[in-house]
Amino acid sequence: MSETTFHPAVIEMKGADVCALRDGALTVVAAVNWTVAPGEFWVVAGQQHSGKSDLLMLAAGLMTPARGSARVFGCDPEALGEAQIAERLRVGFVFAGGQLFNQLSVQENVALPLRYQKNLSAAEAGRVADVLLEMLELTPFAHVHPANLAVNWRQRAALARALILKPELLLLDNPLARLGGRHRAWLLQFLDELGRGQAWFGGRPMTMIASTDDLRPWHDEGKKQFAVLREKNFAVVGSWNAVRASGDHAVKELLGEPPGPTL
Amino acid sequence: MRGNLAKTIELVNTQVFRRAMLPKSYTDRLGRKLFLLLLTVQGLGAFALITLGVMVKKFRVAPRVLQPLVRREISRAGVALLPMFFFIALALGFVVVSQTVSALAKLGQSDWLGSTMVIVIVRELGPLLTAMLVLARVGTANVIELGTARALGEVEALEALGIDPVHYLIVPRIIGMAAGIFSLTVYLILGALASGYLFAFLQDVPMTPGDYLKQIAGALSWLDFALLALKTTAFGFFIAIVTCYHGLAQPLRLEDVSRVAVRAVTQGVMVCVLVDAVFIVLYLVT
């Protein structure tokens, strides 16, 4: 946390009420106080429908808080209009279902943000996209359309699309939920590499926030920060050791311990 | 027992229904319908203005992405429909033009041929028929495509990538549809007039091609050309706005897409008739 005094916070929420994307009148998480410093890796855990996706949308500046303030790179999401498009592009967002454009092939999907923002031809942007596809082992699927792709690879293509503009902040909405064992291991390792700083992305550690409904795969030696969502509340837990030591039943449940009543 | 109870309730209900002179529900229903209509008009108006604003403001944004999209839309709403329009032009010539030509010739009123043709084909039937056909073929596809994209969360994905969904998804469709309807109308009018003469000729109507052309050219004024261009562009713009609005403007569920498509086509037809009415007034005034 001491870093925040030297660097501006990447995300800063003060008493922010998160409303649902589908229903603006419904508050799903209330009064979030949260600061994310550059280079941090946060895992936000919560049961299904606990508001993880909406919280991430707010963190990405795609929604505005119903109450309180939420600033992304020091900007108010409401002010993230045309002039602040550069700020928006510092954030990469990987949706839970990938949300790839079904009319376009994997390579076109990945290249689209670059083409649109830099006004490049399909061939020029395609060359850049190919490098990223190679890095993510997606080259064999470059010309396949998302509908013909297995979920594992679709999710990876969505990650590539979020990374093409070399964001400083990467948000992943429940990235492990639909993946098989090998793909989970690959993704966790790849995210760790990004967290250490990878040459293609300028070498600086990428700030990351991932949401999950199962904490177990995210265990580490203390680099990640954990927070949980329960009963419309956002609570910072701390490092993995704090998660393990926590007596909170919501945290225990997210660690796979026998659940309480489902309703 | 249950069946009897249901029958009784049904009976009571129909009796109440029949006895009531003007139940409150009628007014409620009418009021709700009117209210919904006003909301739709307001939504469509706002959507049209926003889209126009984006068209002007982002004229120079990402042309290398937009140009291929515009070309694709023009091909979809124009070039791809040419075979169908060839057939429609033949049919229109056969059904309307040749019958009118031979009827007027029989009555010895061939002098009225030019103005009749201009009013029926050039001003009314050509543009309106084109608009209806493009609405049916491309407008429906628009609603379904955009509705599905919206329901699958692709619009949020575009926003997350800093791409304006109105600019990327709607502007090409509007340009494509306006250009498509304008060009197809011109082809339809030319085709119908030519094939009409051909069928009239086959019916031994005593009129030379030169006379026929002279009659039509004489009845056309410069205003017809200008208003035709304006009218067909307006048709294209409004059909695209109505279909895109219903596909895109509200968050949808996948099962809503078919219902919304039907509504969009109905409203598309209504909007075209309204635009047509405005142009009739313009023709009468000028």
Write up what this structure looks like.
The complex is a heterodimer of chains A (263) and B (286). Chain A is an alpha/beta fold. Chain A folds into 2 domains: 2-90 and 168-254, Rossmann fold; 103-166, no CATH class. Chain A has helices at residues 52-59, 85-88, 106-118, 122-135, 151-163, 181-196, 240-245, 249-254, and strands at residues 11-19, 27-36, 41-46, 67-72, 91-94, 169-172, 207-212, 224-230, 233-238. Chain A is globular, with a radius of gyration of 18 Å. Chain B has 286 residues and is an all-alpha fold. Chain B has one domain (38-285). Chain B has 10 helices and no strands. Chain B has helices spanning 2-19, 24-57, 63-77, 82-106, 113-151, 154-160, 165-202, 209-219, 222-248, 257-285. The longest helix of chain B has 39 residues, at 113-151. Chain B starts with a helix and ends with a helix. The model of chain B is unreliable at 1-19 (pLDDT under 50). Chain A binds chain B through residues 21-22, 57, 60, 62, 82, 85, 88-89, 91, 93, 95, 97, 99-102, 112-113, 115-117, 119-122, 161-162, 165, and chain B through 57, 61-65, 68, 149, 152-154, 156-157, 159-163, 168, 251.
CATH fold group of the largest domain in chain A:
Rossmann fold
What's the count of strands of chain B?
0
Global outline of chain B:
elongated
- Give the total of beta strands of chain A: 9
Helix content of chain B: over 70%
Strand order of the largest sheet of chain A: 5-6-7-3-8-9
| Percentage of β-strand residues of chain B | under 5%
Low-pLDDT residue spans of chain B:
1-19
What does the main sheet of chain B amount to?
A: none
- Outline type of chain A: globular
Let me know the CATH homologous superfamily of the largest domain in chain A: P-loop containing nucleotide triphosphate hydrolases
List keywords for this structure.
heterodimer; A: 263 residues; alpha/beta; Rossmann fold; 2 domains; six-stranded mixed sheet; three-stranded antiparallel sheet; 8 helices; 30% helix; globular; B: 286 residues; mainly alpha; 10 helices; 85% helix; 0% strand; elongated
